[in-house]
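quick q for whoever's on today - can somebody do inverse folding on this one?? i tried earlier but teh output was garbage lol. tokens:
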């Protein structure tokens, strides 16, 4: 597998990208690897976006609904890229969760 924690099939190893590189060809659009911001790290499973659609919300380590700060209108229903950036900021500013926050 290309990543330690992933929900993709075990057959998705990145071999195609590596073969292109070894052949001396250029890989394109490498930024389009799909990231799901509400995956459970290390468990290899997702909390579907449908949970947020049904009223679930994201909390930081201080119990704060942080998406209101980053997407005041959409809040927890913001798109994956907005949720990913907001979560990254929260983690980097020390408001992540878990042992290594």
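ok took a stab at it. sequence:
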């Amino acid at each position: 597998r290309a990543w330690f924690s992933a929900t993709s099939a075990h057959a998705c190893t990145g071999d195609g990208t590596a073969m292109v590189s070894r052949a001396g060809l250029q890989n394109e659009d490498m930024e389009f690897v799909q990231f799901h911001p509400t995956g459970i790290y290390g468990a290899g499973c997702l909390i579907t976006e449908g949970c947020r659609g049904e009223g679930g919300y994201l909390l930081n380590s201080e119990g704060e609904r942080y998406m209101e700060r980053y997407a005041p209108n959409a809040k927890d229903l913001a798109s994956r890229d907005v949720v990913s950036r907001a979560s990254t900021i929260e983690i980097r500013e020390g408001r992540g969760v878990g042992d290594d926050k």
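fwiw The longest helix spans residues 80-92. also The radius of gyration is 16 Å. so keep that in mind when u check it
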